[in-house]
Design a protein that fits this description.
The structure is a single chain. The chain is an alpha/beta fold. It has one domain (about 1-210): Class I glutamine amidotransferase (GATase) domain (Rossmann fold). It has helices at about 15-25, 40-45, 55-65, 70-80, 90, 200-210; strands at about 1-5, 30-35, 45-50, 85, 95-100, 105, 110-115, 130-135, 135, 150-155, 160-165, 170-175, 180-185, 190. The strands form three sheets. An eight-stranded mixed β-sheet has the order 2-1-3-4-14-13-12-9, sandwiched between helices.
C-alpha cells in the first residue's frame, strides 16, 4: 500500500503528510506516504489525496501545468476506482464547475457547483474560519467510523460545493444555513474541512481513509 499526495503548488502538503503518517502509525499500517508531482508515482499508489488551498482556478491551472497529472488522476480515481480523498479546494475540484471569480470547469466527478457561502446571519463572517460541529448525513459511511455525531472539525473557506444529488452529501455544518462539509460517491470522498488540522477527529478520518478500499 502507498499513498500519493498530489503536489501541484497548492495545499498543506507537509501537514497532510505528517497527519497521514500519524494516522498510519496509530493504526499500525505499514505503508509509504509520498508527496509527489509525478504522474508515474500517482499511477502506482493505492490511495490518492488531493489537497488544495487558494482560488479554484489557480488550483486547476496548477494541475494542468504538470504533464500527465490530470489524466493520471482520472485513471486512478475513475477508471481504476482507487480510494480518493479531496481536501478543501481539492474537494471542490471534484464538482462540475466553480463560480469563484467567474465560471471554471471542475472534474465533473460529483455533480454540482461550487458557490459562495452566504450566511443568513450578518454577524457571521466570510471566510468561514475555525471549528464547527459536523452533522453526519451518512453516519454509516466508512469514512466516519468511530466519529461521533457532533464532532468538531476545522474549516477555512469562502466557497462550498453544492452537490446536485442528496445522496452525495456525507456531512454538513450549520453556518447561517447548511454548508457542505463532506461529499462522496463510490470510491470518491472529499472534505471541505481540513482533517490535517482537526486533531483527533481528523486523524480518525484519515485512518479510516487509509483502511478504506473504496466501497460504501
Amino acid at each position: 500500500m502507498s499513498v500519493a499526495i498530489v503536489d501541484y503548488g497548492s495545499g498543506n502538503l507537509r501537514s497532510a503528510a505528517k497527519a497521514l503518517s500519524e494516522a498510519a502509525r496509530m493504526e499500525g499500517l505499514d505503508l509509504a506516504i509520498e508527496v509527489t508531482a509525478k504522474a508515474s508515482v500517482l499511477a502506482k499508489a493505492s490511495h490518492v489525496v488531493l489537497p488544495g488551498v487558494g482560488a479554484f482556478a489557480d488550483c486547476r491551472q496548477g494541475l494542468a501545468r504538470i504533464d500527465g497529472m490530470e489524466a493520471a488522476l482520472h485513471e486512478a480515481a475513475i477508471e481504476k476506482g482507487k480510494p480518493f480523498l479531496g481536501i478543501c479546494v481539492g474537494m471542490q475540484l471534484m464538482a462540475d464547475l466553480s463560480n469563484e471569480h467567474g465560471r471554471h470547469p471542475g472534474f465533473g466527478w460529483i455533480e454540482g457547483e461550487v458557490t459562495p457561502i452566504a450566511p443568513k446571519d450578518a454577524a457571521l463572517k466570510v471566510p468561514h474560519m475555525g471549528w464547527n460541529e459536523l452533522q453526519l448525513e451518512a453516519p454509516d459511511h466508512p469514512l466516519f467510523k468511530g466519529i461521533p455525531a457532533g464532532a468538531h472539525a476545522y474549516f477555512v473557506h469562502s466557497f462550498a460545493l453544492m452537490p446536485a444529488h442528496g445522496n452525495d452529501l456525507l456531512a454538513s455544518v450549520d453556518y447561517g444555513g447548511p454548508v457542505t462539509a463532506a461529499v462522496g460517491r463510490g470510491n470518491l470522498v472529499g472534505t471541505q474541512f481540513h482533517p490535517e488540522k482537526s486533531q483527533r477527529v481528523g486523524l480518525r478520518l484519515l485512518a479510516n481513509f487509509l483502511r478504506w478500499r473504496g466501497e460504501r
